[in-house]
Amino acid sequence: MNFFRCKLLLIPAFIGISLVSALSFSATAHAANFYVSTTGKDSNSGTLASPFASISRAQQAANYGDTVYILGGTYRDFRIASSDANYNYVNDIIKSGITYRAYSSNDTPIFDFSKISAASKRVAAFRINPKVSNVTFLSIQVTGVKVGNQKQSECFRIEGNTTFNQVVCHDNEANGFYFVNHGTGTCIKCDAYNNIGPTKNSIGNTDGFGAHGDGVNFSYCRSWHNSDDGFDCLTSKGSNTFDHCWAFNMNAGGDSNGFKIGGYANGTPPNKIPIHTVKYCLSANNNAHGFYANHQPGQSATWTYNTAYNNKQGNFDMLERISPTKAVDIPGTREILHFNLAYDGVSIKDSNIPSANISNNSWNKNGINISDSDFQSLDVNQLSKARGADGDLPTVTFMHLVKSSDVLGLGCF
């Protein structure tokens, strides 16, 4: 139901205003709750006793600071909210400052878009408008998004500013989280898996997480068995941070990198090339590279305390280009790598990095000989275990070092 919340305006004492005077400046903010249910109706009032049926109707009623609670169940009946020349936007988020969240942590809302055809246009299950900021999604799942004969579709197309917490995109023919144009935001404890483009046209355009906008922070996220890359920041205009994220089992037929960090393909790089941060991350059992600088025309990233295992085209590949105006590939010279661990496969390739920038990694520590016995487990299947009650990454022993290992202290565990 609706409730009122008072905000105390804090005024420094040195300007001589007493607490009583300060209270006279207090602002009273009105925040409302609305509810959506699989058994609701959009003609309802939106209360818990009389919930709406759709996100679109709840957004129409809500304003900045309000919360839309989504009751558990599977939502399958949708109408197209808006369209342009290329896309049908099923849910078009056009208002700022609204939180969309599960009503109960014990009953996750599942949005199944398998009835929405992609025959005529691409599908964006949720689109966050470029003018929108401070939108939050918490504890929902998205599945069934179709691509048809289109080049790609998206579960979330983020062109504004959004925070995702414990949101899961799985078993789609579409990108999971797609930050594009000037999109920014945060992904915390999110998963993207089994998102596979079914055609030659789409298989190489279906990533778990795409950071192609003005900068995104990813923390404690997982990406696995998506048909293109786990995390991709091709053509990014802003700096992205990847912190305690896992990418594994990218082997469904596309580019198949764990972390593709940088690159502009045939596009024009921005005036200031962004430098990304990749720390405490894990990339394992991918058909291409584990951690990849991807032809960046400058430094792609600072890479610290990461672990790479059994990535078929190299665990760390630091391939760069000479400059933004000269698209000639060179072994990387500008990357910074410290305290990283690589095992099984080529540890590092395409690297001509000065020694000061690439120290204390498993492949360049003297007298080190790593074997299976250095690890508690090499079972990559542990990584897809269920998360903890608070959305924490699962407890695993995969790639955890034994206490007697010579490389203890390196990598993400």
TrEMBL record:
Cofactor section: Ca(2+)
By sequence similarity, the record places it as follows: Belongs to the polysaccharide lyase 9 family.
> What Gene3D superfamilies does the annotation carry?
Single-stranded right-handed beta-helix, Pectin lyase-like
| Record-annotated Pel9A-like right handed beta-helix region domain positions | 30-340
Annotated GO molecular function terms are:
carbon-oxygen lyase activity, acting on polysaccharides; metal ion binding
**Record's Gene Ontology CC terms?**
extracellular region
Top-rank lineage group of the source organism: Bacteria
List the PANTHER family: PECTATE LYASE (EUROFUNG) (PTHR40088), PECTATE LYASE PEL9 (PTHR40088:SF1)
Q: What is this protein called?
A: Pel9A-like right handed beta-helix region domain-containing protein
Does the record carry Calcium as a key word? yes
Alphabetically ordered keywords of this record: Calcium, Lyase, Metal-binding, Secreted, Signal
InterPro entries in UniProt: Pectin_lyas_fold, Pectin_lyase_fold/virulence, Pel9A-like_beta_helix, Polysaccharide_Lyase_9
To which species is this protein native? Clostridium felsineum
Where is it located?
Secreted
Pfam families attached to this UniProt entry: Pel9A-like_beta_helix
